[in-house]
Design brief:
This protein is mainly beta and 173 residues long. The protein contains two helices and seven strands, in the order αβββββββα.
């Protein structure tokens, strides 16, 4: 007999259902995995036509990117790739990356190993003597309270890095 604690519920959705449930002009994370015991993070993210973020480097996790709809460009360590439906790419940690949606917009599924959560522990003596300054919030875009990444779009509802709901943003339709 299986231990009831070990049994986790599967999660099933359809891309068509997710896209249909969100207004055409909305961008950001349309869906993300939830649940405390999962080992994987995944987000379905809509980028409006012509939008994109500045290049940044993800130092913690490799990211798998799948283009579901639309098109655009991915610049990875200065090399530009054309994105079309069905494109699958591995974005290794430590690489600089930037996405730009084409004229039809871009819908991508990203997956990666779940990031480490915050832990309670002793700090090193050097850390106690020189505390790290908190990042300054950007006045133009929302900043994730979990990973401190700036939102790619001004109207984003979820962080594209970790999936956390952005502060002051509605999280339902």
């Amino acid at each position: 007999m299986k231990d009831r604690q070990a049994v986790r519920e599967a999660e099933f959705v359809t891309v068509a259902g997710l896209v249909a449930a969100v207004a055409q002009g909305e961008s950001g994370a349309l869906w993300r995995l939830v649940g405390a015991e999962r080992q994987l993070d995944a987000n379905l993210v809509r980028h409006l036509p012509g939008t994109g973020g500045s290049a940044y480097t993800e130092d913690e996790v490799d990211v798998m990117l799948v283009v579901v709809e639309g098109g655009g460009t991915l610049t990875l360590d200065g090399i530009e790739s054309r994105l079309t439906p069905g494109f699958i790419g591995l974005l290794p940690r430590g690489t600089s990356r930037a996405l730009r949606a084409g004229p039809e917009g871009l819908l991508v599924l990203t997956t990666h190993r779940r990031r480490r959560g915050m832990s309670i522990g002793r700090s090193t003596p050097a850390a106690r003597s020189t505390p790290a300054a908190a990042p300054e919030p950007c006045a133009l875009h929302a900043v994730c309270t979990r990973c401190h990444r700036h939102a790619i779009e001004a109207d984003a509802r979820y962080c594209t890095g970790c999936g956390t709901a952005l502060p002051g943003r509605p999280t339902s339709g």
